[in-house]
UniProtKB/TrEMBL annotation:
Protein name (Swiss-Prot/TrEMBL): SARP family transcriptional regulator
Source taxonomy: Bacteria, Bacillati, Actinomycetota, Actinomycetes, Micromonosporales
DNA-binding region boundaries: 1-100
GO MF term list: ADP binding; DNA binding
Keywords: DNA-binding, TPR repeat, Transcription, Transcription regulation
Gene source species: Rhizocola hellebori
Length: 930
């Protein structure tokens, strides 16, 4: 039989075709065995993996025997194809291998053709041809008759690859001038994926290129309605820009390629913590992990479990560094704080945002809903090889939304719990037991030197026994021994034995609890002042603490707290993981909290917590002033109470760095500080501007929601109005207008009832911004005018200027450019009079836009240059890039191509750095203009 006439099909029903005829592939269960081997053609698949893939509804007792029967029948089936010369099954040490040319399997041929079609070295015609061949291989739903989690994962991955290939093909066809071909395919695909905006955008471009512009505009209206109904959001900025270009007739007939996803602009994360320098033991576990990874395509999740302090993180990090080269697309790390003494594990939303941040996904591309965020995360990983290390998980529910769906990725999870449901779903468990005596001795030798350990074997045995062979306890004892190299180990063993005897009443079968004896022994060696600082660290909210914050917590100067923190670090009770920032194991934090409850009085603990919060409130206020020296929305807090050490920050760069380091701590404090409503509200208010500048809208919503609840308990209507107003603003930034409107309504009503005219005016300005984002510019003018009237009534000049500029901008968008210039000049006059330089940047940009559209290109160039320089002064990178792109347009319209390209190149450099989708449009302008 001609080998070329043989085909194994997975992209539809599982099938084998030979000489143009289908062969009998047996029952769905047998098809599942065949598919499980074909997906990993020429790679070994372990028996356990085959069983997991095949039996989705529970593994029967005789699963292995049934599997062997299916394999025997498949062997007979393969012998019908050229006597077994085309494909055959081999039994190897690592599992069963279906030895077949991958190009005879439609799934593998599809992937090869897609890779060929995305090769940037080929031209559009070659890419289109390869992608067309790839898409033609689809005959229906992949693995159509198969059920279960594995089949669903393969199906989801295939669907994503098909969608990606179809969009690349459509772009190539449009570039070749074939819109009719695209229109013959895309409508059905859009019906399958009605919320994929880039796909709808391609269909709109094809309709426009085919002379059916009205239908393209109708498609946008339909998309906007679907997004509003199903996701509660509006089309993305790219889609709104495309819509506006269609309305203005500015869209070229043939679109240049745009990225299908954010993938080309993604960073390659390398987030693994530093490897443990004195790692010892665990050879058996490391070999097991290596063996699991050696089974290609079979291992996508590993769970490392064991008691607290037993070294789960150390093992996971050591192994992750060891295999990082197998994951060239990056390594993500996230501490889920599942057993944090504060009782505040990382939520799924927080975790997903952190993982997306690892790829440097721009904030405006992260959707608002949790499911949509999880979908984006899985999509980013779908075609990548990434290692995801999820440390310190509380339970399976915390982990499940964070798991990759791609067989090329690996999730390694550590937890004190066994996470049985994940294991049942296919995760490979690795349980850590206590170190053996030999391993414990090796750990001490690595830290203290082999000769010192060999010299006192009985003392070493006593230390190992007292530490119950728990790595964390052994490390603490080793740290004390290292501090005093002249002390005999026997002396330390005696001290430790005495401490253990005192805590007999705390004895437990759990070595992590028995480790209290070691903690107690090390704690008692501290000076009284260092012991007090250690106890108070148990009251701190964040995952780590900076030196000035620790000084505030203790109510002592920085000069006095530094040597105390150094003493704690030498005792291995804290670690200076970043210069000037200290963290400790959560067992030690829990022990510190126990000690402060036992020793310090309620007033002492309350005062320490208050000082810690006040440190962040007052330091944050000064950092916020550096970000915006002329705010009108934040009143200065009262003078800091005695004992508070403020951060000494000089300039915007230091303020941004401080906020970046402290925002996880401040967000944790906002969540955890029950009964301290005034400080919670102040913390959220202080953090708001930084989060807004950084585009961290989701974190801002979390903080402001807590602030709103605190303001309600305080009974302060103006604080409630403030929280509602900025919650509305955050939802506008995310495009969630249905969620924004109720907050703005409540803010307006509260400000009006309180007689706060300025606050009410700001809310009307926010309404105008929301309408502008929705393309309702005429309606937006009405709200901006109302804001202007209110600002004038209150004598608020900064607000008047912002409202005037908004009115001018909306007139410009409506084509009334002279009226736009009039209002913007009035705004600029006010802003120059009282020094609102950021407001001037916005107004100069509006003036540039109006002049450009009036054909006054020289005036537009001058306006845009001024705006760009002012944005640069404020380090507002996006607006600097946006204005630079407009500056390039003005130069180009004036006939100065060289200057235009220079401005566009400047904009492109920033946008590429930000990973912003607008970069592609600027890149197109450069190609067209150059």
């Amino acid at each position: 039989m001609d080998i070329g006439h043989v085909e194994f099909r997975l992209l539809g029903e599982v099938a084998v075709w030979a000489a143009g005829q289908p062969l009998d592939v047996g029952t769905p269960r047998q098809q599942a065995v065949l598919a499980a081997l074909l997906v990993d053609a020429r790679r070994p698949v372990a028996v356990e993996t085959l069983i997991d893939r095949v039996w989705a509804d529970g593994t029967p007792t005789e699963a292995r025997n049934v599997l062997y029967s299916h394999l025997s029948r498949i062997r007979r089936l393969l012998r019908q194809v050229a006597g077994g010369a085309v494909a055959h099954i081999e039994r190897r040490h690592a599992g069963y291998v279906l030895d077949v040319d991958p190009d005879l399997v439609d799934l593998h041929r599809f992937r090869r053709l897609v890779e060929q079609g995305r090769d940037p070295r080929g031209d559009d015609a070659a890419r289109s041809a390869a992608l067309h061949q790839a898409l033609a291989l689809w005959r229906g739903r992949p693995l159509a008759a198969l059920t279960g989690q594995w089949a669903a994962q393969v199906r989801a991955s295939c669907d994503q690859q098909r969608l990606d290939a179809a969009m690349h093909w459509a772009r190539a066809e449009l570039n070749l001038g074939h819109p009719a071909t695209v229109l013959g395919v895309l409508p059905d695909l859009v019906a399958e994926h009605p919320l994929v905006e880039p796909l709808e955008g391609l269909l709109m471009r094809a309709l426009h290129a085919a002379g059916r512009g009205a239908e393209a505009l109708d498609r946008y209206s339909g998309l906007r309605q679907r997004l509003a109904d199903q996701l509660g959001t509006d089309p993305s900025e790219e889609m709104r820009t495309l819509h506006q270009a269609l309305l203005r007739g500015e869209l070229p007939a043939v679109a240049r390629p745009e990225p299908v996803t954010v993938a080309p602009a993604l960073a390659t994360p390398a987030q693994l913590p530093q490897d443990v320098s004195c790692f010892a033991g665990r050879d058996r576990e490391l070999h097991r992990l290596d063996a699991l990874l050696a089974e290609p395509g079979t291992t996508t999740m590993i769970v490392i479990d064991g008691t607290a302090g037993i070294g789960k993180t150390a093992l996971a990090v050591r192994w992750a560094h060891r295999v990082a080269g197998r994951f060239p697309d990056g390594q993500l790390y996230l501490n889920l704080r599942g057993f944090d003494p504060t009782g505040s594990p990382v939520t799924a939303a927080e975790a997903l945002r952190a993982l997306l941040d690892g790829f440097e996904v721009p904030a405006d591309r992260i959707p608002a809903g949790l499911e949509a965020q999880a979908g984006l995360y899985r999509s980013l990983l779908a075609t990548r090889k990434v290692l995801v290390l999820l440390d310190n998980a509380r339970d399976a529910e915390q982990v499940r939304p964070l798991l990759p769906g791609s067989p090329g990725c690996l999730a390694a999870v550590t937890s004190r719990n066994q996470l049985a449901s994940l294991v049942a779903a296919g995760a490979h468990p690795v349980t850590l037991e206590l170190l053996t005596t030999t391993e414990a001795r090796e750990l001490l030798a690595r830290r203290l030197g082999g000769s010192r350990v060999t010299a006192e074997p009985q003392a070493v045995d006593a230390i190992i026994t007292a530490c119950t062979r728990l790595p964390l306890a052994l490390s603490i004892v080793a740290a004390r021994a290292a501090i005093h190299p002249r002390f005999g180990l026997a002396v330390l063993a005696d001290e430790l034995r005495e401490a253990t005897g005192r805590l007999d009443e705390l004895a437990s079968a759990d070595p992590a609890i028995d480790a209290r004896a070691v903690f107690s022994w090390s704690y008692r060696q501290l000076s009284p002042a260092a012991a007090r600082v250690f106890r108070l660290l148990g009251l701190h909210s964040g995952p780590d603490v900076a030196t000035p914050a620790a000084a505030s917590l203790a109510g002592i100067p920085v000069a006095k707290v530094r040597p105390l923190l150094a003493e704690l670090a030498r005792a291995h009770l804290v670690a200076e993981h970043v210069p000037g920032r200290f963290a400790c194991h959560d067992l030690l934090r829990a022990y510190a909290a126990e000690q402060t409850l036992a020793i310090d009085t309620d007033p002492e603990r309350s005062a320490a917590i208050g000082r810690g919060l006040d440190h962040y409130v007052h330091s944050g206020y000064h950092a916020d002033r550096l970000l915006n020296p002329h705010p009108d929305d934040v009143a200065s807090p009262t003078q800091p109470p005695p004992g508070i050490t403020l951060e000494h920050l000089a300039g915007r760069a230091q303020a941004l760095a401080w906020f970046t380091a402290e925002q996880p701590v401040m967000l944790a404090a906002i969540r955890q500080s029950t009964g301290l409503d005034a400080q919670v509200w102040q913390l959220a208010r202080t953090l708001r501007r930084f989060l807004s500048y950084q585009g961290r809208w989701h974190d801002s919503i979390d903080a402001l929601s807590a602030a709103l609840e605190a303001a309600r308990r305080l009974g302060d209507p103006l604080q409630q109005a403030y929280a509602h107003r900025f919650l509305g603003g955050d939802y506008i930034a995310l495009g969630c207008y249905e969620k924004a409107r109720p907050h703005l309504d409540q803010a307006r009503d509260l400000y009006s009832s309180a007689g706060d005219t300025v606050g009410e005016a700001h809310v009307h300005r926010y309404f105008s911004w929301m309408l502008d984002r929705q393309g309702l510019h005429r309606e937006a003018i009405g709200y901006a005018r109302r804001a202007l009237d209110l600002f004038r009534a209150a004598g608020h000049r900064a607000g008047q200027a912002r409202a005037l500029n908004a009115i001018g901008w909306f007139h410009a968008l409506l084509g009334d450019y002279e009226e736009a210039l009039h209002h913007c000049r009035l705004a600029l006059e006010l802003q120059e009079r009282f020094g609102d330089r950021f407001g001037q940047a916005e107004t100069w940009d509006s003036l540039g836009y109006a002049n450009h559209h009036l054909g006054r290109h020289a005036e537009a160039v001058g306006c845009y240059r001024t705006a760009r320089d002012l944005y640069h002064e404020f380090d507002d990178r996006y607006n600097e890039a946006d204005t630079s792109a407009s500056l390039g347009d003005a130069h180009f319209a004036a006939g100065d191509t060289e200057s235009a390209c220079a401005a566009w190149q400047h904009a492109l450099g920033i946008l590429d750095q930000l990973g912003h989708p607008a970069a592609e449009e600027v890149r197109h302008r450069l190609k067209a203009g150059g």
